[in-house]
Design a protein that fits this description.
82 residues, mainly alpha, 3 helices, elongated
Length: 82
């Protein structure tokens, strides 16, 4: 599971200058790969430490809320700059 939702990949073209688009998409791809690698490990670690699948889902819910907050912040910044 990627920690970066697909719609986030639309932001660099709206936020960055044309000459920085490649770098922006590269950073997003690298962070997505890191999320795929460490996200599963972190959820498994939470499950192993607590012994509860419920805590794993709570952890995933917290991550989903953080992603939503980040998307809202980016959307507000885009609207202010345009």
């Amino acid at each position: 599971m990627a920690l970066i939702p697909a719609p986030v990949f639309a932001f660099p073209s709206k936020v960055l200058k044309t000459e920085n688009l490649g770098l922006g998409f590269g950073i997003l791809s690298a962070l997505s790969s890191i999320g795929v690698f460490f996200g599963n490990y972190a959820v498994g670690l939470v499950r192993d430490e607590t012994g509860s699948y419920e805590m794993s889902f709570i952890f995933l819910s917290i991550l989903a809320v953080l992603v939503t907050v980040t998307a809202i912040i980016l959307r507000v910044k885009i609207r202010r700059s345009s």
